[in-house]
Structure formats: C-alpha cells, structure tokens
Amino acid sequence: MDYATTLLNGAITKSDTTITVDDTYDFPEQGRIHIDNEEITYTGKTPTTFTGCTRAQRETRAAAHSDNATVNNAYKVILTDFQYRVPIALEDRGLEYAVGISLREV
Description:
Number of helices: 0
Mean pLDDT: 87
Structural class: mainly beta
C-alpha cells in the first residue's frame, strides 16, 4: 500500500474544504487523508493543497487542526489470509517467491 506523509502549512478550521500542506507529491491525485483523528476525502490536489475536501468521513468528526499537524494516508488493516508458495528458481535469475496476502481495512 502506498504511504505518504506531510505537514499542515497553517491551521485549518473544521469547515475548510481546501487544505494547505507542505507538499502533496507522494499522495495520489484523489483519495483519503488523516489529520489527527479525522479522515478526509479529497477530489484533487495541487503541489501544496488538497482540494474538494469532504470532512468527517467514516465515522470521524470534523475538527480544527493546528499548523504542522501530521497529514498522512495510512490505513489500519487486519491480515485476513496469508498464502505462500515455495521458492521459484528461474534459469537465469535468483530465487523468486510467490506470496498472497488478503487485508481488510478497519
């Protein structure tokens, strides 16, 4: 899973729909972010802002956040299934392994 982190560049209120940060480079073009205990979805980004933000997603509450609060797209997941296979020896390569993992987001 992709993981990105940045910091707020200025405090935000609980109703802001554009969120200014230090850098959005590692984040997808649209998605979800977390600030403190709030989850926020966004529909676009510029190099330093998340735009089209919908606050208080997935049973979280909209809140004001302080300058330099951590912004990330980390998710908690539970491993629900793990499958593995024996190593695969390829003629002109080293060993490769086939692994299957099933996750459920919480």
